[in-house]
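TASK: fixed-backbone design
INPUT:
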C-alpha cells in the first residue's frame, strides 16, 4: 500500500543497477573534481581501498541511529520551541535528511547542511539520493523486511521520499553498487537547506539565529590526521587549528547546545608513535591485532579543554565512543 502511494512500487527490483566501475583516476581526469574531491580520491589510493570505506564522502541514511535519536530527544527536551541545527560535512545530505525525519515537530527545527565540496552540495541540492547496501532495506517492500525496527524506519522513510528513475547516483560512490534512487518530496524540503561551507567559518553561519546543535561528523580525520600503513596517526602539528575550530563551535552554540562528532574509527582511534610516552597510550585489540593508541585523541582533548562535557557515547569497535558533547547550561 505505502509502496504504491509513494510510487516506489516495483522500483526496488527494476532499479538494481550496478554503478559502472570506474577508477578514481578516470574520474579525476574528467576535470570535474574540486580540490576536496581529489583529497578524498588520494585517501582511497593511499589506503588501497575504496574511498567510501576510508574517508571520502561516505554517509548513509540513519547512520549511527542511536546518536541521531539521542540528539533529537535532547533537542526536543532542551529547546522545545525549536532551534537551528548546523550540519557541517553533510556530504550528499543524508545525515540532515535523516535528522529531519526523526523530529516529531519538524517545523520547529531548521537544519542547515554545509560541506566544503561543491560536488557534494550540488548533489544534495538536487534532492536525489542513491541507495546503497546498508540502506537497501529502506526501499524494500514492507512485507519483505523481517526486522521490526528496520521495518519502522523504512515506513518513516517512504513518507518522505519517492522512488524515481531520474537523476544520477552519487558521483562519489563509483565503487559501490546502487540499489535504487529516491527523490526528496517537495513538502519535506521546507526546513532543510544545503550550501557550501567550511567548518573553519562556523562562527559566521546562521547569524542572529540560535544554534542548538552543530554536527561535524566523520570529517576531522580528513583535515588533521595522516593515513599510513593501514592506521591513522596524528603529527601533533594541528593543536592550535583544532582548538580554534572547537572554540568557534562552542561560542556559536546556545548554552546547553550540543556538538556531535562522528562514529567512525578514524575519528577517535589514533595510533601512537613509538616515541609517545606510555602514560598517554593504551593497548587495544582491534580485529585480532594488538595496537597502541592514544588514550585521548586530539579532538577529545580540545573538547574537554574548551569545557564541553560528553553526554552520550555510541558503541564502537573499541569500546564506547563519545559522540554527543554538551556546552554546559
Ligand atoms: C565521510 S563524509 C561525512 C558525511 C557525514 N557527516 C556522515 O558522517 O555520514 C566527510 C565529508 O566532510 C567534508 N569536509 C571535509 N573537510 C571539511 C571542512 N573543512 N568543512 C566542511 N566539510 C568538510 C567532505 O567534503 C565530506 O563530504
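OUTPUT:
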Amino acid at each position: 500500500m505505502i509502496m504504491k502511494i509513494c510510487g516506489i512500487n516495483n522500483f526496488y527490483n527494476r532499479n538494481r543497477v550496478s554503478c559502472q566501475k570506474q577508477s578514481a583516476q578516470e574520474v579525476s581526469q574528467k576535470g570535474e573534481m574540486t580540490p576536496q574531491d581529489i583529497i578524498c580520491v588520494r585517501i582511497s589510493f593511499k589506503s588501497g581501498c575504496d574511498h567510501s570505506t576510508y574517508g571520502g564522502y561516505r554517509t548513509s541514511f540513519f547512520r549511527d541511529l542511536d546518536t541521531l535519536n539521542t540528539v533529537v530527544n535532547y533537542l526536543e527536551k532542551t529547546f522545545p520551541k525549536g532551534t537551528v541545527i548546523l550540519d557541517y560535512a553533510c556530504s550528499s545530505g543524508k545525515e540532515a535528511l535523516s535528522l529531519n525525519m526523526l523530529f516529531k515537530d519538524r517545523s520547529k527545527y531548521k537544519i542547515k547542511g554545509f560541506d566544503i565540496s561543491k560536488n557534494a552540495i550540488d548533489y544534495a541540492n538536487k534532492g536525489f539520493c542513491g541507495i546503497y547496501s546498508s540502506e537497501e532495506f529502506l526501499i524494500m517492500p514492507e512485507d519483505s523486511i523481517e526486522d521490526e525496527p528496520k521495518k519502522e524506519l523504512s515506513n518513516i522513510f517512504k513518507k518522505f521520499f519517492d522512488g524515481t528513475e531520474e537523476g544520477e547516483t552519487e558521483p562519489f560512490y563509483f565503487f559501490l553498487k546502487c540499489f535504487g534512487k529516491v527523490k526528496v518530496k517537495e513538502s519535506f524540503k521546507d526546513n532543510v537547506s544545503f550550501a557550501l561551507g567550511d567548518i573553519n567559518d562556523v562562527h559566521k553561519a546562521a547569524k542572529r539565529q540560535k544554534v542548538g546543535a552543530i554536527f561535524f561528523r566523520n570529517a576531522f580525520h580528513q583535515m588533521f590526521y595522516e593515513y599510513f600503513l593501514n592506521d591513522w596517526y596524528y603529527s601533533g602539528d594541528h593543536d592550535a587549528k583544532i582548538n580554534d575550530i572547537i572554540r568557534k563551535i562552542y561560542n556559536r552554540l546556545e548554552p546547553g547546545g550540543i556538538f556531535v562528532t562522528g562514529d567512525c574509527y578514524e575519528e577517535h582511534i589514533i595510533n601512537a608513535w613509538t616515541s609517545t610516552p606510555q602514560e598517554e597510550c593504551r593497548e587495544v585489540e582491534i580485529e585480532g591485532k594488538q595496537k597502541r593508541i592514544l588514550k585521548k585523541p586530539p579532538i577529545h582533548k580540545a573538547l574537554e579543554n574548551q569545557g564541553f562535557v560528553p553526554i552520550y557515547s555510541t558503541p564502537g569497535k573499541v569500546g564506547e565512543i563519545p559522540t554527543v558533547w554538551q556546552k554546559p547550561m
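COMMENT: The chain has twelve helices and 14 strands.
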